[in-house]
Every structure is written in structure tokens, then in C-alpha cells.
Amino acid sequence: MSDKLWGGRFTAKASEWVDEFGASIHFDQKMAAEDLEGSIAHAKMLGKQAIISSDESAQIVAGLESLQQELTAGNLTFDVKNEDIHMNMEALLTEKIGAVAGKLHTARSRNDQVATDFHLWVKHRLPHVMSAVTDLQSELLSLADKHAGTIMSGYTHLQHAQPITYGHYLLAYFNMFQRDYERFEFNQKHTDILPLGAAALAGTTFPIDREFVAGELGFSDIYHNSLDAVSDRDFALEFLGNASILMMHLSRMAEELILWSSYEFNYIELSDDFSTGSSIMPQKKNADFAELVRGKTGRTYGSLLALLTTMKSLPLAYNKDMQEDKEQVFDVMDTVIASVKIFTGMLNGLTVHEGQMLAATQDDFSNATELADYLATKGVPFREAHAIVGQLVLKGIQTHTPLQKMTLTDLQAAAPQIEADIYQILASETAVNRRTSLGGTAVTNVKKEVTRNYKILEER
Ligand code: ARG
């Protein structure tokens, strides 16, 4: 017989290096607290249901509780020969209370145990992700409030398109992070389901009480199919998918922070505590942290792809492949929380060069649409208006004259419908403030949106 907990039907011992390959204790010890929590609930239930005696249940629970204290004190050491956190804990419990520890695994398998630990681990941490997202949103909102009227160029294809406000830009991200938040809420609903009681795959002949265990562990739902319970890793994939979308949003904004703090743009400046210098070039102030968030987005996608690929085509129910699920989720949990926090800090210390932003909208022909729209309202078919303004822009580029600096005579030569009120229309402030359509960039709209979004955060 081998010396393994499951060694009964084995005659030979595996080599140490083979054991190493199969073990997960070096990473799944992160779920030590959840493993103890799950075992305590299970042991209480076994006693309550008289599956084991109440005295045995009490001994097991006491032993597990003292392991909890040792874990908190940092006094537990794990052994790779016990493969994973589940068998390490059982071995430690046996050392502590003797043979009665062997009754803990009644009506339970490592398959429903690992699923329970993993659900608990994610369930405990999703609220941290969500509160970090809330902090980021609230930072964006106060910045948008402050910059509801700060005019800047809006871009398409990274070319000047039409003037917008910086507040409007910030609220676009607020809304993206709002959807991210909601995705994590839904993710929590799918994580908040108890697998324990599914046993290996088919349920158990013991008269267990899963509702009781769910209550003890704070799960609001229970898997109603034992095969699904031990096979499902959707909640983990959903987390990785949601985290990937969130990181994608961060990476887009990171890119803009990096670009906009360059010499050429000079729209913003990151605070010293969120920048780094160069070891050779004394003048450098680099947006390293924004770059790192942008970089960590790739790492997050990698984890999503890794787990999707691991799960692809796996037959039901448990397969050892699934041991590969945890490292991806552990890593992304740290990555995503830290990245969101870094972003909140970066935005908090941000200096906005309002004059520079406004100046960039003055000579850039981003008011060309205003003139075309103006002609259209005077009855010129829009296509024709577009062509007339295109010609004027071409002339303006050649003579370095923006539309609002052209004389009325020159403008009228191109289109006689143009009157003196055009100069007011061509100002970027006017271009912004006339865009009062629902969702448009007008300052009044942005202010209303800020108020509406404050309410969303207050009610959260
Ligand atoms: N360490 C394993 C994992 O992380 C636990 C479940 C093992 N179950 C089994 N039947 N081999 O997936």
C-alpha cells in the first residue's frame, strides 16, 4: 500500500518528482482559509444529521478551528507529499485529533471540496474588485464634474474630429466601468452557488443537508445537479472574461494618458508619485504605471485564454486538467485589483492643461462639420455643403487660415448663404454647446450626467 490518503489500492510508491508534478499545494494553499471554512460547515452538518456522532463532529470542528488559528498566526506548514490543500489539511487534522479526523471526508469528495473552496475564494474577493471599481468611478466623476466645460479635441482615427469636453470623455469611461461593475455583480450571482454535497459526481447515499451547509457558508443558492456542481468552472471563466474587458478599458485610457502626457500633446501631467525617471536621461518623466497597466492587460487575456483552452472539450465530470484553473484566477485577481487602484491614484493626482487642450481645437478645422451643418440648415443639400466646406478646408490648409479666420467675403464666395453669424457658430465652445442631443457633449448635458451618475454611486 502507498502512503497516500487514497493509497489503498496501490502497491508501488510514486517518485518524488512525479508527486511534484501532480501537486498543487504550492499554489492552492491560497485557499487554506476557505478549505477550513468549508470543512467546518461540512463537519457540523455531519453531526447535525447524525451521520457521525455529535461528539465526533465537535472534536473535528474544534480541531479545524485550532488549525484556523494556526493558519492566521502563520504557523501551518504544508507538505508536497500531501499533494493539495485538501489532503494537507486532513493530514494536519489527523496529527492534531487522531483517527477521528478520518470521518470528516464522509459524504464528500475532493471534487466537490475543491469546487467549494474555489467558489468561496472568488466569492470573497469579487466585492474587493467591485469596491475598487467604485472608487475609480467616483474619481472619474469628480474629475468630470470639474472638467464639464473643459474643451478639447475629440478624435477618430486619432485625427482631430470635433470638439468635445474632457468631462464628456471621462464620463465615457465612467459608463464603461459601470458596465464592468454590473458584469462582476452578475459574476457574483454565478459564484454564489454551493457545490458541496455533489460528492464525487453523483451525489451521496448519506442523508446530508445541503441547505444547512449553504447557510453556514453564506451561499445564496445550491447547485441542483451534482455533475454540474463538480464540472462547472464558468464562474472562474466569467471572472477572467470580465477582468479582461475591464483591463481592456483601462488599457485604452492608459494609452491616452501616455500619449497625452507626451511633449507633442502636453494635455495632462501625471503626478510625480505615479511617474518614473530615467537612469540616463535626466529630463525624463515616464508614465510607467499607465504602461504597466497596459502591459498587464495582455497577461490577463493570457489567463482567460489559458483557462478557456484548458476547459475546452473536457468530458464531465472532474478531470485533473481542472487543477490548472486556480493559478490563472489567483493571478488575475491580484492584477486587476492593483491595476484599478493604481489608476484611481493616477487620476487623483492628474494635472490637466486646459489651455493646451483648448488651443488644440483652434486651428485644426475641427469646426468644418459646423459649417457644413450651417449650410444644410440654409437648404443646401448636405452632400453639396460637405463638398463646399471641403474646398474651403483645402484652401485654408494651403494658406494656413482656419475657417473662423477667413473673411466673410471669402466665405460668401464659396457659398452665398453664409452670413456674419457664422463666426459665432464656428467657435469650439459653440460647437460643443449646441450638441444638446441626448448623450451629446454639450456642457449642460455633461453636468446633468454627472448628477445622474453621482446618484448611481450613492445608491450602490
Ligand atoms: N488538487 C485538485 C484540484 O485542484 C483537487 C481535486 C482532486 N480530485 C481528484 N479526484 N483528483 O483540482
TrEMBL record:
PROSITE patterns recorded: FUMARATE_LYASES
Protein name (record): Argininosuccinate lyase
Domain Fumarate lyase N-terminal intervals: 8-302
Q: Name the Enzyme Commission number(s) assigned to this protein.
A: 4.3.2.1
**Compartmental location:** Cytoplasm
The record, for CDD domains, names: Argininosuccinate_lyase (cd01359)
**Stored Pfam families:** ASL_C2, Lyase_1
Q: Which domain of life is it from?
A: Bacteria
* Coiled coil, from the record: none
What is the organism field in this record? Leuconostoc pseudomesenteroides
Per the record, the major location class is cytoplasm
Q: Which reaction does it catalyse?
A: 2-(N(omega)-L-arginino)succinate = fumarate + L-arginine
